[in-house]
Write a structure and sequence with these properties.
With about 180 residues, the chain is mostly helical. It has helices spanning about 10-25, 25-55, 70-90, 95-105, 105-115, 115-135, 135-140, 145-170.
Length: about 180
């Protein structure tokens, strides 16, 4: 008999818990108990991987750097996984029409999720082009102060990319890997 391959990623683990909860008669209890257990285990792994090198006489591990470290991924993955569990319980309950009504609030996230590669790579390419051409400095100069520019540019970027993904989603145009 073949064994199923088990994904070891944080998101996959929470996803498997959600799927098991759907198949279970005690969905809420399973999700709450399982989510708490998974969260505690992953947080323990993160804390151990942060503390162990120092305890063993080595250099302390940098939790956040340009390349993600395992403890950083775990420390980010746990709250995101818990958020997914909670929203799944809130949205995926009730009649079919009630679930469809609740899912309408998720349409912006669905549009972003379907074109996430465009947003990710497009934002990097656009930032690079704007910085090289000098247009970025002009755009930043539009804001009244440095703090407004520091917050304003990312907000404008998120609005612009979100709008683009909404338009492309309506036209059913998706960038695929």
């Amino acid at each position: 008999m073949r064994q199923k391959r088990v994904d070891r990623g944080v998101g996959a683990t929470f996803g498997h818990l959600i799927l098991a909860g759907r198949a279970s008669g005690q969905r809420l209890h399973l999700l709450a108990r399982g989510g708490a257990l998974i969260s505690l285990v992953f947080l323990a792994f993160a804390l151990i991987s942060i503390a162990a090198p120092t305890a063993l006489g080595g250099e302390s591990l940098i939790v956040m750097k340009r390349l993600w470290t395992p403890p950083f991924a775990l420390l980010i993955g746990v709250p995101v996984g818990l958020f997914l569990l909670i929203t799944n319980v809130l949205i995926d309950s009730g009649t079919k029409s009630a679930r469809a009504r609740k899912a309408q609030a998720l349409r912006p996230f669905i549009a972003l999720g379907r074109n996430f590669l465009l947003v990710y790579f497009g934002s990097h390419v656009l930032n690079s082009l704007l910085r090289r051409s000098g247009v970025f400095g002009v755009l930043v100069g539009v804001f009244p102060c440095e703090a407004a520019a520091m917050w304003g540019m990312p907000v404008l970027s998120v609005i612009a990319w979100s709008t683009l993904t909404f338009v492309l989603n309506r036209k059913k145009i998706y960038l695929r890997a």
